[in-house]
Amino acid sequence: MRFVIQRVTQADVKIxxxxxxxxxxxxxxxxGVADGDTEEIADKMIKKMIxxxxxxxxxxxxxLNLESVNGELLIISQFTLYxxxxxxxxxxxxxxxxxxxxxxxxxxxIRQCKGQVPVVERGEFGADMKVSLVNDGPFTIVLDSDMx
Length: 148
Prior knowledge:
The chain is an alpha/beta fold. The protein has two helices and eight strands. It has helices at residues 39-51, 99-114, and strands at 2-15, 18-23, 26-32, 55-56, 62-64, 72-77, 120-122, 129-144.
């Protein structure tokens, strides 16, 4: 499982020109699911993500977590995080989780986050989405379950 976490001051996701999710200060989280990912792996990833201390305190040090700043989440499914570009110039996505399983994991992640973070917005699994954000910093973290 892979999460690309972008610290933002604001973000939204549109489908067919309609805003379906919008947040202020918080994280945009791009979620990639691989075959073999489990709820236990998702739980570890969520715990690590929510606990990250990447917001600045009053001294300008990255010392505060999402809860400390009343941060919000915008969670977007992103199978392309498992692109394999080793051969040729056209990426292969065979390492990405099968759609049914990946969607179940995506929904599980959203449910778990909603139990821990007051504002959790989302995209739509498999949809053509337009994501707009103001990356604060910029500050981007990649979490990979293989590295936890």
